[in-house]
Amino acid sequence: MAKTPDPASQEIDALLDERRTFVPSDAFRASANAADGAVYDRAAADPEAFWAGFARELEWIEPWSTVLEWDPPNARWFVGGKLNASVNCIDRHVRTARRNKAALIWEGEPGDRRTLTYFDLYREVNAFAGVLKSLGVTRGDRVALYLPLVPELAIAMLACARIGAVHSVVFGGFSAESLRDRINDASASVLVTADGGYRRGGVVALKQMADDALEGTPSIQHVVVVRRQAHDPLPVSMQAERDHWYHELMAEAPLRCEPEAMDAEDLLYILYTSGTTGKPKGIMHTTGGYLTGTYATTKWVFDLKEDDVYWCTADIGWVTGHSYLVYGPLANGATAVMYEGAPDWPARDRMWEIVERYGVTIFYTAPTAIRAFMKWGTDWPAKRDLSSLRLLGSVGEPINPEAWMWYHEHVGRQQCPVVDTWWQTETGAILITPLPGLTTLKPGSASRPFPGITAEIRTADGQKVEKGGGLLAIAKPWPSMLRGIYRDPERFVAQYWSQWPDGIYFTGDGAKLDDDGYFWLLGRVDDVLNVAGHRLGTMEVESALVDHPDVAEAAVVGRSHDIKGEAVAAFVTVREGVETSDTLVDVLKAHVVKKIGAIARPDLVLFAADLPKTRSGKIMRRLLRDIADGKALGDTTTLADPAVVAKLKDEYEDEEG
Ligand code: WT7
């Protein structure tokens, strides 16, 4: 059950009072892809016809007979239709003047560069699809991809799509154990990985991590290893029969591989994301609806034109990279920039250097990055030529208005609309967003639902809220919605469709509606953290901590962080006889990194004699959040003083009756 959100209402009210708004310029409006405001009403009147209009812009092998079959919570879009995602992202462009247009402009962190045209991509994807087939991969099989942000990752995804295999991308920052669990949950038969990747000058030894994972993955038959090394050879051990070099297989690969005719509802991919339990959920996306949703939103939200140079900075390990670095832009025949590494390597203007070098016109990033840019100062963007930029986007967490304004001024030179896009791994595509040629922007608000999307605010018990705060609900199905949680239909229903009956989707976010019908997102209302725009379950981190032999109990909460938005704070009680120390703090942090990955590393570990609990035994998270935020204790101590905890606990219990 969701708790009622605790809206930062005063802050938002203060912003509304300022009435700081940005109207699209005449020039932008005149050439925008979505320029007629009547589209909102038209789409609301007949959402199925609206989506079918976009679906018709894709290439179908067989047409659908019914746009939507909705038997809540099960949706089937474009029923009976057949298509292939790789054909839509590649082949149909190769048949046009886009044949030698850059599809991917890639830059590695060490400075190595590659450009792949649509025709290059066509050849690579055909070849790798043939390679996968030769390794025994057939329609419906799962293929795990554990790679740095290199073109081979996009190639492998599209090769899977070509032969009807289901890809499961595992972010390269996840640990061996996380990789192992994801491979096993999906019973993947092939793993594609790399010798390593580059991050902030260092090497991430992916194959070594994969080797650890592979000790416990009985389903894996073959491992394909991309040789990424840009300079020093990375030590890699190859197991005979099982492990193969990518380049060696590709040298033998056939030129062409016929695409499979996939049903619109065939699984395109699984992507694991964190939920409220210790176990990540395998979110399932299917072919026709997902492609329609990502195609449509990329075209309208980013106002994509033939000559744009579009850059989404997300890693493909997250859904943003799937939808807005691979499927959305390529389905639109766009030129997409891909950058492997850190924004401050070798210097803090790396992003702006890339914008300048390729003449990037559309730039899509996360608030956590923008806040880091702010901290680094205006000199870095100022010394680069950013005049090519015409549109900016934000995603991943609520963007604070200060960051919005900074982005607009120092990156966008006050010339670029900023689209704050709200969506989730589960929604597949952007659901709440401005349309840059139509929407008057309010910094801090994601504005209105995309046409055809019915977003609402509801109370926990289902009352519709016309104005004010509550829980964000999506009341009607949409094409790119998740079709389930892999091998866990019960959790699918419990997680998303049980808060309210009748097929109303529960997002897990709190939001507030203002007088103009604009949505202001307020963050998660469940036990899910948003650390630097990445989703992390508190229970996952707690499980990782109690896995350590010295730990008796652990409670994890989010702690405000000026760059990351939220950081992980862990309260730990140790087993009897264990001495608490700074060394143990480091040991426990390292243990979490080993179990989950660096993104989960606790910022703060506090030892407590007891975790504060209500009389019914529930951990008092709000109290812990206050302590972690320094409202009750300084940062200097690693000990949650029992007296302070006890006193606060009394106060909370009094307050909560
Ligand atoms: C959660 C989804 C979908 C892209 C990356 C994250 C938060 C996402 C916004 C935004 C406020 C946002 C929500 C959501 N979120 N975008 N523009 N404004 N909050 O995907 O890991 O599935 O996380 O990110 O809390 O539920 P994800």
Could you say what the CATH topology of the largest domain is called? Answer: Rossmann fold
Distance between the termini: 20 Å
Round the Cα radius of gyration to an integer and report it.
24 Å
Q: List the total number of helices.
A: 21
* Bound small molecules, deduplicated: 5'-O-[(S)-butoxy(hydroxy)phosphoryl]adenosine
CATH architecture of the largest domain: 3-Layer(aba) Sandwich
Description of the structure:
The chain is α/β, with parallel strands linked by helices. It has three domains: 10-61 and 428-524, Luciferase, Domain 3 (Luciferase, domain 3, Roll); 96-287 and 295-394, Rossmann fold (3-Layer(aba) Sandwich); 528-656, GMP Synthetase, Chain A, domain 3 (2-Layer Sandwich), CATH 3.30.300. 32% of the residues lie in helices and 23% in strands. It has an eight-stranded mixed beta sheet with strand order 12-11-8-6-7-14-15-24, sandwiched between helices. Strands 5-4-17-16-18-19-20 form a seven-stranded mixed beta sheet, with helices on both faces. A hairpin with a 2-residue loop joins strand 27 (528-531) and strand 28. The longest helix has 17 residues, at 118-134. The radius of gyration is 24 Å and the shape is globular. The protein binds 5'-O-[(S)-butoxy(hydroxy)phosphoryl]adenosine. 5'-O-[(S)-butoxy(hydroxy)phosphoryl]adenosine (WT7) binds next to helix 12, strand 20, strand 25 and strand 26.
Structure summary:
With 657 residues, the chain is an alpha/beta fold. The protein is built from 21 helices and 31 strands. The N terminus is likely disordered.
Question: How would you summarize the topology of this molecule?
Answer:
Layout: H1 9-18, H2 26-31, H3 39-45, H4 47-55, E1 66-71, E2 74-79, E3 82-83, H5 85-94, E4 102-107, E5 113-117, H6 118-134, E6 142-146, H7 151-163, E7 166-169, H8 176-186, E8 190-194, E9 197-199, E10 202-204, H9 206-214, E11 222-226, E12 243-245, H10 246-251, E13 262-263, E14 267-273, E15 281-286, H11 287-301, E16 309-312, H12 319-331, E17 335-339, H13 350-358, E18 362-365, H14 367-376, H15 379-382, E19 391-395, H16 401-411, E20 418-421, E21 455-458, E22 464-465, E23 468-474, E24 484-485, H17 489-496, E25 505-513, E26 519-524, E27 528-531, E28 534-537, H18 538-546, E29 551-561, E30 565-574, H19 582-595, E31 604-607, H20 621-628, H21 642-655
Parallel strand pairs: 4-17, 6-7, 6-8, 7-14, 8-11, 11-12, 16-17, 16-18, 18-19, 19-20, 30-31
Antiparallel strand pairs: 1-2, 3-13, 4-5, 9-10, 14-15, 15-24, 21-22, 21-23, 23-25, 25-26, 27-28, 29-30
Bound molecules: 5'-O-[(S)-butoxy(hydroxy)phosphoryl]adenosine.
